[in-house]
Design brief:
By secondary structure, this protein is of the alpha/beta class. The protein contains ten helices and eleven strands. The longest helix is centred in the first third of the chain and has 23 residues. The radius of gyration is 27 Å and the shape is elongated.
């Protein structure tokens, strides 16, 4: 059935209709088949239909197969329609990607109930951070029911292989001051971090490196781009925008399950 699989969904549906109604007779001449499929597919489809007829496959069975192939094609297209490539960087001819900054602004601008943001860093420049997060901050200030959770990396500084010896609490408090400095609104988000990034030794250290936007538990952007102006405007970054509530909700649960298990910790003094 390989050559039938190559037909378009519309051709498969028309072919199934012709076979089902008996209007396409089992001689399967090219001229007859051409009334149901495109000209470029006519000869190959006719040859395949004659081959199946020689094998004793009834028209009704071929029609059923064509309909199943058409339904498979439709389902596959629906999945592709829910996924967009998101890109920062130089564009090339024929590119079908969407701009990272534009997608981020659209996503955050539509938030009604909740936003989950994960980023290794936030832009330390308050004006650049405002360009990225200003619309979300305005919505938070206007809508007290909008829940925003921010997951960032809070790491112990190292210099020449030697860790900063200050207590974890001081480093976290320092990070909180920075978030407050760059956050462009009155209401602050809830902020979470991975305490393993504060480890003094080499062994258990890890970092929160994910870059994710999840809006209202329905749409998710998974990207290499941090919440920085460079990542959204100048670097080469790639991601996918997924318009699927099941995937978005599952990804959100992944983060929140780590919070519930105490593996990611709330930053004191935040929203």
């Amino acid at each position: 059935m390989g050559s039938l699989r190559d037909l378009s969904r519309a051709d498969l549906q028309r072919l199934a209709e012709g076979l089902q109604t008996g209007k396409l007779v089992p001689t399967y001449a090219e001229s007859s088949v051409g009334r149901y499929v495109g000209a470029s597919s006519r000869d190959v489809a006719a040859a395949e239909l004659r081959r199946l007829h020689t094998l004793g496959v009834p028209p009704q069975h071929i029609a059923l197969t064509a309909r199943l192939l058409a339904e498979e094609r439709e389902a596959s297209q629906a999945i592709r329609d829910r996924i967009d490539l998101v890109w920062t960087g130089p564009e090339v001819a024929g590119s079908r990607s969407r701009d990272s900054a534009t997608v981020a602004r659209e996503l955050l601008g539509r938030a009604k109930r909740s936003v989950l943001l994960a980023s290794y860093v936030i832009d330390p420049n308050s004006e650049k951070a405002r360009a990225l997060l200003g619309s979300l901050a305005q919505q938070m200030d206007a809508n007290p029911d909008l829940l925003v959770r921010l997951f960032i990396n809070v790491a112990r500084p190292w210099l020449n292989g030697v860790p900063d010896d200050r207590d974890d609490e001081l480093l976290v408090a320092e990070a909180a001051v920075q978030v407050r400095h760059v956050w462009p609104g009155e209401r602050l988000p809830q902020v979470f971090y991975d305490p393993r990034a504060l480890a003094r030794g080499h062994g258990p250290r890890a970092c929160l490196h994910a870059k994710v936007f999840i809006v209202d538990g329905e749409r998710a952007l998974v990207t290499s781009a941090n919440l920085t102006e460079a990542a959204h405007e100048r670097n080469i970054e790639a991601g996918v925008l997924i318009d699927d509530a099941d995937v978005a909700a599952s990804l959100e649960r992944q983060f929140m399950s780590l919070v519930d298990a105490g593996l990611l910790v709330a930053m004191p003094g935040m929203g």
